[in-house]
Amino acid sequence: MHKARLEAFSDGVLAIIITIMVLELHVPSGDKLGALRPLLPVFFTYLLSFVYVGIYWNNHHHMLHAAKRVSGGVLWANLHLLFWLSLFPFVTGWMGENSFRPTPSALYGFVLMMAGVAYWILAHALIAVEGHESILAKALGKDRKGVISVLLYAVAIPLAFVYRWAAEAIYVLVALIWLVPDRRIEKLLQSV
After folding, report:
1. pLDDT tens digits for 151-183?
2. First-to-last CA distance in the chain?
3. Dihedral over alpha carbons 165, 170, 172, 176 (to 10 degrees)
4. What global pTM score does this model have?
């Protein structure tokens, strides 16, 4: 199967996710800068989630650029990823509205972790279609960055109930790790 429809559908879903998240930023009543203060937690969670969606979009784009075709399994794996990403607006809003309280922060980490697992599943579904000698398989290698990210989320989830700011710091750290786009796929594509 061709990958164009999967790419277009995924791009549309990610655009909708970002739109829904920004709708959680409500205009404050009042015209003073102090009126923005209660919105800071919501804005910071929106910013973090926006960065995460951008990271997923960027890496998803690169991964699909390296793939030549998709299968039914890839379509389902992609929907699995989009399911977890579609929960970003909910957990973003809940965490922001509750000023990073433990339970919303832990659920935010759980959704991040599951999105990371779903991305790994999608990558391996694509490798199954493309083959273990494909550009994608070579570029991902053992995907240490992906595995480390999921492990960090797994640490942050229970940490949110003890030291919630440490959990939040881990979420930011993982985003920073991924903020620079993964160049492995680009390098291999240029060498072909």
Report:
1. 999 999 999 999 999 999 999 999 999 987 666
2. 23
3. 150
4. 0.91
